[in-house]
Amino acid sequence: MATLEKIRNKSVLLFIIIIVALLAFILGDFLTSGRTYFGDPTSVAKAGGVKVEYQDYQQALTQAGEQMRNQGREVSNDVLSQSTIQNLLAQKLMEKEYQELGITVTDKEITEALTGDMPHPAASQMIYYLSQQLNLPEASGRTLFDAMQNPAKYNIQPATAEELKKIWANQEKQIEEMMLQQKFMALVSGLYTYNKLDAKNFYDDLATTRHLAYVSKDASSISDDEIELTDADVQAVWNSQKQNYRLDEPTREINYIYVAIEPSQSDRAEAQKAVENAIEGLRTTPGTEAIANDSRFVAQTVKVPMSAVTDSKLRTFLSENESGAATVLNRQNDTYTLAKLIDVTEGIDSINISVLQAVPGTNLDSLLAIINNGSTFESLSDGVTTSGRDSLWTALEGLNMDAKVKAALENNSVGKAFILTDTVAGGETAGAIYRINRRHAPVKYYDVATIEFTVDPSQETLADLATNLRTFLSSNSSAKEFVDNANNAGYSVLSDQVTASSTGIGNARESRKFVKWAMEAKKGQVSPMMQDDRQSYLIAVAVSDIYDDYLPWSSPAINTSLRAQARNNKKAEKLMTEYTGKATDLQGYAQAMGTEVNHGSVNFTSPTLLNVGVNENALHGAVAAAPQGKLVGPLKGNRGILVFTVEEVNSENRPFVEADYGMRFNQTYGLTRQNSPLPLLLGKNKIDNRSLKFVAGVND
Predict the structure, then answer these.
(1) Does residue 595 fall inside a structural domain?
(2) Containing domain of residue 565, as a range?
(3) Is the pTM of this model over 0.85?
(4) Contacting residues for 6 by C-beta, under 8 A, at least 6 apart
(5) Which pLDDT score is estimated for 487?
(6) For 332-420, where are the alpha helices, taking DSSP H only?
(7) How many domains would you assign to the chain?
């Protein structure tokens, strides 16, 4: 019995342990998934203590999309999505700054900005436009606000007044945001403004020109095998520029294989045969019957005079052939353009008419009498029951014109007005008055079909491409194997760096879901074969490295540039060792280096130094500090060495005015040079972009 009791007690304990474990498992799943009340399941992005909520993001994205469409611009949704997130993060961070700095806009300031004697510039346009549309007695914010509050006083409909209130509220919000930004910028600009020394140095750089005699030797004069370049040399260059490679968010170094889904040679041969058969069929059957049942051929038929044909090849085809002729007009890559001349007829090219259209029930006879007495058609147009034009050129062919109207315009006399009526629904008679002012002589009309045929990859081609890539991936399941063996398998390996904010991989369109795979994968992992939604390419991705703080020197994105800088640096050092102290004047150095003495002028507002190179800051500084007439060098630059003498300094007698040059200093180096406020607002904070949570994955 004692033993049984112990088992019972331990069973209770075991049951409690199991329950606790289950709860821990369930809670752990909740806490790590997006479908939970814990954490931030609805946040799209976070940075610097602020976050962008999904609902706000969706609303802003919709508005941005509508604005793009209204402007006639096309931007991929992925690009628009990420720019929207960046803008919202900047806005949230700005709002945080306003709060922490105590920057506010009062109701009185907003009221003054909208209804004061000097309205805010952003409000002036809205006030003027709405005042004109509503026929208000004056274009002022006060009158517009009064009309919004008392619509009956200005004969404004209640629905219009409600819409006006929405516009006004939106304008208040925009004005408040702009005024907050202005106050913030005014405050922060003080951190980026000039002092007296800045203004004087800027004056010296801009107004002073130094005329030099110099000898230079380029690093390219040293062959690569004359130096020993190590990874340590490359890393040293990276260390000197490390701040340039700081990452705002975690980054994945990826390699990828991109396979365009294109027709095979077999597909192109089959397409060529299909086009040849189509041409034969078009020549022996009426119209476009020969290709009517083949969806690969898209036909468009028009009836036009030769004057309306702009394509030179089509003009030649029409002029040299008879009805029934067909040909391949053009072939560009995998797209064929075919043409068939269906028929040639005669018709009036164009006719000039006057017309007065009227609503049913209008007394056309009385209007005709007025016209015959000399009145113009436009003078009888009231914009409600009648609409008149005095001179209108129109074609009679190819417009699907009503047969009754066409016949009347073909057959009636020139210069005589006539009435043309028809019965409409309800038995009412509607009509118009016409007058033919001028009618061109008949010309040839060409009934021609132009047919587009695009060679698409066959299912067999797609299957072969997919099978080959899958076979390669099954044998190369690590990132190293992926890179090392791709070339032997006939694939080119491309590289990229992606983050959660990346709109895609390389130039592969609609590839954000593949970014999601890469950001969720482990280092060294290789993806399965993936395909875009349009079936235009296959892609496979390997994650070669993961970076958190800095883009390392070994990254393919910067390694080539860093290695070139390090190589030039080593060559310049070798030149310094070889030529330092070899002469006491420029002519001697020119003879030692096997070159000539050159002359040139240096102004420090230019990034280019003589013919030595660009961004030679150290050499620029040495020129600025050199006494006139003294031999200076050799000095090591980014791409070689330089020996020089300052022969003359010319200030061009420009007076130094501190305020003027201080303002120019601010314009060049101050806060106005910041392209985006986001880096400034982020500081050392990183972006936690969570928008990939809302992107369907590869297998979703």
Answers:
(1) yes
(2) 209-244+558-650
(3) no
(4) none
(5) 94
(6) 364-372, 403-411
(7) 6
